[in-house]
């Protein structure tokens, strides 16, 4: 597990997540590869990093993981890009109270035997909708236990037990365009920057 904070987490890397790794396994906090490809997928099968919440329960590619292999990805926030006349301006979206976010995800055993995940997304809400039309599915505190419960496999029961975070808790601000380079990974990336000079 990483021993230092990360400020520019990119797809195709190991990310921290909470999940049950198997039948009867205790809840674990460990590393999942950010890239979802089931072990049975062959050839040029996609390796998505996100899955739309609207169809994840019924998609052949995702439905088994949705029923039995759900996970939570902790984060302080995420980046989205707002189109401006001089290019795209990155914004950092986070909780106004600075509490951690728990992003809903699904995981699967990949063809290489390692666990890989995708983060669920939903239509953007609240402050996030000012920047992008979609956002990660961030869950409220009461939803964390049922989302991780491997015995809760019924879609309707899960839908009734799991709720997204109140959109009034979200805020955002423009940040440096240094975030566009994956090699840049330091705390200054989440500091507010002028929206035209970032």
Automatic annotation (TrEMBL):
Pfam families: SRAP
Chain segments annotated as transmembrane: none
Entry's EC annotation: 3.4.-.-
GO molecular function, one term: lyase activity
Enzyme class: hydrolase
Keyword entries, A-Z: Covalent protein-DNA linkage, DNA damage, DNA-binding, Hydrolase, Lyase, Protease
SUPFAM superfamilies: BB1717-like
GO biological process, one term: proteolysis
InterPro entries: SRAP (IPR003738), SRAP-like (IPR036590)
UniProt cross-references to PANTHER family, sorted A to Z: ABASIC SITE PROCESSING PROTEIN HMCES (PTHR13604:SF0), DC12-RELATED (PTHR13604)
Family named by the database record: Belongs to the SOS response-associated peptidase family.
Protein known as: Abasic site processing protein
Organism: Halomonas organivorans
